[in-house]
């Protein structure tokens, strides 16, 4: 009985071992490797899903660097392919290499053929590291390898890529064409002539702020204008420019209609209103801003421009000193899109003559250059002497009402030729001056017309009307040439309105460090042209690459005049031909 019991126990253990072996055998499925080994000896057109369930990375050290693969293409999980360079290196872990996902290609496959795979599986919910993910496919379909014309497919892909590149190249142009340009010009008030232009895509320069204090984009030196008076924004939803009053004390009008908050003076913002071209914005009661809107960049100024002015009222013992200087610039001129004007007028006996001249000069110049024959003559001869002389004569003729008021006038005309080179030519009356720095040298573009200047004393002598000993003024005026002053001119023939006109100056695209400084005598009385140029060069280097660099340079020159204790109104226009500054 004991022997029988032992035999039964032994038989049970054998059965248990056999059962365990069968379980292990079914779990490991060793026949998969036999099937894969057989398939490597000959090519089969059909593969099972299990053939694709191998890890992407192998730790097999038998595959060494430099060993090539037999497969000319490798496929990712989504059926896309890329060229194999022959070395199947993995960048994930050093010493690891990619295994082939497909059996070795058959000798019957020719170069240029490819594979299309349809994998039969359901997506795995828990994908492990190194596990190949499988795309879902229709039930009952087989993972088949088919061949197709790789050359035709490459042509189709090439055509698609070319079309895609063409659309990409077109996109910036379409965006650029959709830009809206806003141009603002102060046409009345203490800051008359001030201009500002911006486009709707310049997000860093928006919104445009209008106010009396920095950092206003349109800085308006008007006591009725609040420090932060109004702002203009681009509404990208409506594709419109909108103006909003920022709670100003004296209100904002558009075409004489108030847009301020009903409770004026409460510092509450008004509602935004849409702007249209030719609108007139009134800030307070005196400052008026003209609005122009265009879909093209017809207002972009190819220079950096800074304007600064100060009546210097405290330099005469605190006595109130009225501001009689006026600055103006305009690019391009209406009807002459290759021409621009920069002008400084310094009044005496009042600001009336200067205010009138600063309006007349741009108008007369634009009318002359709107004549295509005269404009082409300037471009062909590269000389605008006749035009400038005509401008001063016609301006003088229209100042008949200014019997006892006059002003200096320094006009810098800048234009471009067909080769995009600039030309600059200056005309002046009085002691306002212009100097240009070009290629390491500074060029005086104006002539001093004070009574005691050498050029005027020589002119008097040639006319037989020399000055008497100690005579420094004529009719109490220290200038011999000016606009206006009709009564003194009738009494003394030594007065003149004949301008000095400089030689035209060519500014090539290769020219370096080119800039101009126009200013009233408030600067030149205490700062020489050479020193002004040196200061501007120093500030250019310091401000290079920063926004508003031209404005800072103009204010830097103004601060120098203030530090040197000038006793006259001071106005400065700084014009930099290097827009990359």
Please characterize this protein's 3D structure:
This protein has 581 residues and is an alpha+beta fold. Among the domains are: 180-298, Sandwich (Tumour Suppressor Smad4), CATH 2.60.200; 304-576, PPM-type phosphatase domain (Phosphatase 2c, domain 1), CATH 3.60.40.10. The protein has 11 helices and 30 strands. The strands form 7 sheets. Strands 19, 20, 21, 22, 23, 26, 27 and 28 form an 8-stranded antiparallel sheet that branches. A 6-stranded antiparallel sheet has the order 8-7-17-16-13-14, with no helix packed on it. A hairpin with a 5-residue loop joins strand 22 and strand 23 (422-429). Helix 10 (529-543) packs across helix 11. The radius of gyration is 42 Å and the shape is elongated.
Amount of beta strand? 15-25%
Structural class: alpha+beta
Q: What level of helicity do the residues show?
A: 25-40%
> Mean of residue pLDDT?
78
Describe the biggest sheet? 8 strands, antiparallel
CATH superfamily of the domain at 304-576: PPM-type phosphatase domain
Please identify, by name, the CATH architecture of the domain at 304-576: 4-Layer Sandwich
In short:
The chain is of the alpha+beta class. Helices cover 27% and strands 23% of the residues. It is an enzyme of class 3 (hydrolase).
Helix-strand blueprint:
Elements: H1 2-28, H2 31-41, E1 46-47, E2 57-58, E3 73-75, E4 81-83, E5 97-98, E6 143-144, H3 150-177, E7 181-188, E8 195-199, E9 208-211, E10 218-219, E11 230-235, E12 240-245, E13 252-254, E14 257-258, E15 273-274, E16 280-283, E17 287-294, E18 304-310, E19 325-330, E20 339-348, H4 352-369, H5 372-381, H6 385-397, E21 406-407, E22 409-416, E23 422-429, E24 433-438, E25 441-444, H7 454-462, E26 483-484, H8 486-491, E27 500-501, E28 505-507, E29 515-519, H9 521-524, H10 529-543, H11 549-563, E30 570-576
Parallel strand pairs: 9-10
Antiparallel strand pairs: 1-6, 2-5, 3-4, 7-8, 7-17, 9-11, 11-12, 12-15, 13-14, 13-16, 16-17, 18-30, 19-20, 20-21, 20-22, 21-26, 22-23, 23-27, 23-28, 24-25, 24-29, 29-30
Helix pairs in contact: 4-6, 10-11
């Amino acid at each position: 009985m004991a022997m029988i019991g032992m035999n039964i126990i032994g038989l049970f253990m054998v059965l248990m071992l056999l059962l365990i072996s069968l379980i292990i055998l079914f779990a490991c499925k060793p026949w998969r490797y036999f099937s894969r080994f057989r398939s490597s000896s000959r090519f089969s057109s059909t593969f099972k899903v299990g053939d694709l369930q191998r890890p992407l990375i192998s730790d097999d050290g038998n595959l060494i660097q430099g060993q090539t693969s037999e497969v000319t293409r490798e496929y990712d999980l989504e059926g896309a392919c890329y060229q194999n360079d022959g070395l199947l290196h993995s960048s994930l872990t050093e010493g690891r290499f990619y295994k082939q996902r497909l059996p070795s290609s058959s000798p019957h496959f020719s170069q240029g053929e490819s594979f299309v795979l349809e994998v039969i599986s359901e997506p795995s919910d828990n994908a492990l590291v190194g596990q190949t993910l499988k795309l879902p496919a229709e039930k009952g379909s087989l993972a088949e390898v088919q061949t197709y014309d790789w050359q035709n497919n490459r042509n189709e892909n090439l055509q698609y890529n070319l079309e895609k590149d063409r659309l990409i190249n077109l996109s910036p142009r379409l965006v650029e064409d959709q830009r809206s340009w806003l141009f603002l010009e102060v046409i009345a008030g203490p800051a008359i002539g001030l201009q500002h232009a911006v486009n709707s895509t310049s997000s860093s320069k928006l919104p445009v702020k209008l106010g009396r204090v920095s950092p206003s984009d349109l800085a308006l030196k008007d006591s009725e204008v609040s420090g932060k008076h109004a702002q203009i924004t681009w509404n990208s939803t409506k594709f419109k420019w909108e103006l909003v009053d920022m709670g100003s004390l004296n209100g904002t009008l558009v075409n004489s209609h108030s847009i301020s908050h009903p409770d004026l003076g409460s510092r509450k913002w008004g509602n935004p209103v849409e702007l249209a071209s030719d609108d007139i914005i009134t800030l307070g009661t005196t400052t008026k801003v003209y609005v122009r809107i265009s879909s093209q960049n017809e207002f972009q100024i190819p220079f950096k421009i800074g304007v600064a002015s100060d009546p210097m009222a405290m330099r005469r013992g605190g006595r109130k000193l009225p501001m009689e200087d006026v600055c103006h610039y305009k690019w391009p001129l209406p009807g002459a899109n290759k021409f621009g004007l920069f002008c400084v007028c310094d009044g005496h006996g009042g600001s009336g003559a200067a205010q009138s001249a600063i309006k007349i000069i741009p108008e007369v110049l634009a009318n002359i250059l709107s004549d295509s024959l005269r404009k082409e003559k300037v471009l062909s001869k590269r000389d605008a002497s006749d035009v400038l002389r005509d401008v001063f004569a016609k301006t003088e003729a229209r100042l008949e009402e200014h019997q006892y008021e006059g002003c200096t006038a320094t006009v810098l005309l800048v234009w471009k030729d067909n080769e995009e080179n600039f030309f600059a030519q200056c005309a002046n009356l009085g002691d306002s001056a212009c100097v240009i720095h070009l290629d390491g040298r500074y060029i005086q573009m104006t002539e001093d017309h004070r009574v005691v200047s050498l050029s005027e004393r020589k002119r008097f002598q040639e006319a037989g009307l020399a000055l008497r000993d100690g005579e420094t003024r004529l009719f109490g005026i220290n200038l011999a040439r000016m606009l206006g002053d009709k009564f003194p001119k009738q009494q003394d023939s030594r007065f003149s309105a004949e301008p000095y006109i400089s030689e035209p100056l060519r500014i090539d695209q290769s020219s370096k460090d080119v800039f101009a400084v126009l200013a009233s005598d408030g600067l030149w009385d205490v700062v020489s042209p050479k020193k002004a140029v040196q200061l501007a060069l120093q500030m250019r280097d310091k401000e290079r690459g920063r926004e508003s660099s031209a404005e800072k340079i103009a204010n830097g020159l103004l601060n120098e005049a203030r530090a040197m204790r000038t006793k006259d109104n001071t106005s400065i226009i700084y014009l930099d031909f290097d827009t990359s500054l």
